[in-house]
Amino acid sequence: MIGICGVGGVGKTTMVKEVAKKAEEKKMFDTAVMVVVSQNPNLINIQGEIAKILDLKNFGGNNLPTGAGEIRSKILSIGRVLVILDDVWKRLELNDIGIPFGDNHKGCKIVMTSRSEDVCNGMDTQKNFKVGVLDEGEAWNLFKEMAGIPYDDTSHKIDFKSTQKAIAKECGGLPIAIVTVGRALKGKGKPSWDSALEQLRKSIVNNIKGVYENVFKSLELNYNFLESKEAKKCFLLCSLYPEDFSIPIEDLIRYAIGIELFERIDSVHQARNRVYSIVDDLKKCYLLMESEKVECIKMHDVVCDVAISIASREEHSIVVRCDEVLKEWLTKDRLEKNAIISLKVDGMHGLPSDLEFPNLHLLKLDCNAGLPPISLGDLNRGMEEVKVQETQDSFYQGMKELKVLALSDMYGSLPTSLRCLTNLRTLSLFRCRLIDDGISVIGALKNLEILRFGDSYIKELPKEIIGHLAHLKVLDLLGCVVERIYPGVLSSLSKLEELYVGSIFRSWCKVEESKEGASAIIDELASLSNLVALDIALINISFWPRGLVIEKLKKFNICVGISYSHIPVRFSLSNQLQLGVENMSDIIETRLNFLWKSTEILTLNSSVKGLKILCDLVGKGGFECLTYMSVSMLYDLEYLINTAHGVPQSGFPRSSATAGPSDM
């Protein structure tokens, strides 16, 4: 059995029809049978269709076992038979229909189509072929044919041609969208084309003939067929981003935790596993696709339009306007009904201050400040043209039910009304610059569980936070410039499970005046008894927090004494350990050797003397999880594995690449 899978409307049915036609022309089979299964299969009807094609006389079509027997006998008597099962949504028992397979009849070959790779695998296919969308050239040629645009067209102005090409691009290479939109606009004037482009860009398609019926409803079936409410919600959360955007899976995880999407989740790690499982399912049914960026996913443009269309319905109450800057604030009566809002705005200063949002649970704002990347050497570099965006001080007063607030590209201060968000569980400030000490207002968010300052600048984590963020589970400072963390802040985060600080301590430790204070702050990590994930870089081993219960760390990216070359951010953490040490006693004293059995990526740049056998460092079982290793400057090293008492099964059972040891 062969499976052909791909997103709805990509051309799977057209392909198998062509397969049947070619097989008949070349006389590869004695007969070919093609039936549509659909999402609610009626086996009696399917048997009837097959019996008709096989020309079964007096077919007993109202009894499933009897019909199955007749069909099976007929196929066996024919010899070479091609059976095509189109549009399969769940496992189909072929024996119940009467289709022989495997050793029962090797002359019967089966081809099936499905929108889900999991369904194909569930049908025990020997091989699956994934049908992708058309490339840009193929898509444009098909669109011209459907829209009646001559191949050598010189009659239209350049701006009309650009509109035509833009509409073709909005179809995202999806054949059903190209055919439907092209036919709908065939013979229409430029105003109709301009209107269609505007509607497609805003995901409003009701006025373009056939698009909703043929395209949107077809793709919406995939959404409707998702088995869990959690998967449907995660899919709709992906609509909060612009088209063709690489969506960080970690965002989905933190939003899901914030809106309390999952039941019976006790940790961030469990929530992360749940979201990754859902994302995998969504990819296998082609509602999501891979991104070129690490730990990100994408949505096909048309699928994104469908998601926005579904999200905007009253039962979901989601407003998305993130592809272009909002020119006019939405009407008060409309906004007040919404549960989720994602907008791109021209600064925080233009936002109204008198709105009530009684149902708002998630607010995502791209503030469009145009901030340059943060430069540690010169914090003012590129800031000359950036204007401060002061938020109306009462802006958050009417959002008392808000659980997730995500701000990006903001230059300004946090208003005092942020104190009103006592139900807030996730606060994300990404690529923001906070211009004063107003961050202390965060101390009022007593139910906060996730706090992120990714790629942002903050002057300090102030003392007002101490003792107030008792529920915080994640603190993310990756890519952040923090001038100061007030003593006692980190140690007060008693429920912290995951800490991502990257290299923020390295610059502090290089300055003599701040070394002692930095060391004291780092030592506070030892009091975080619930810490299971850590991303940190330290200038040398002397700054390592000696009291940290290192055995509790399940995920880590630790760099000590080596130039910090951070791999692309992986919040699932690849258990990377980079060590530059001079004395083996330092490793033993810091207990970092307890991490080696779970280390996946090891860089050991050490001048330790007397170490002759590498695996002696970890003992029995070797480096159980290691996939990559780089070793240098171990001049006394002679062996990787101890073979004195017989060859062990493997010192590196999972390793696929070992670099070094160099300079030995």
From TrEMBL:
The keyword ATP-binding applies. Keywords: ATP-binding, Leucine-rich repeat, Nucleotide-binding, Plant defense, Repeat. InterPro entries: Apaf_helical, LRR_dom_sf, LRR_R13L4/SHOC2-like, NB-ARC, P-loop_NTPase, Plant_NBS-LRR, WH-like_DNA-bd_sf. GO terms for biological process: defense response to virus. It comes from the Eukaryota. Pfam families: LRR_14 (PF23598), NB-ARC (PF00931). Residues 400-632 form the Disease resistance R13L4/SHOC-2-like LRR domain. GO terms for molecular function: ADP binding; ATP binding. Residues 1-147 form the NB-ARC domain. Belongs to the disease resistance NB-LRR family. This is NB-ARC domain-containing protein.
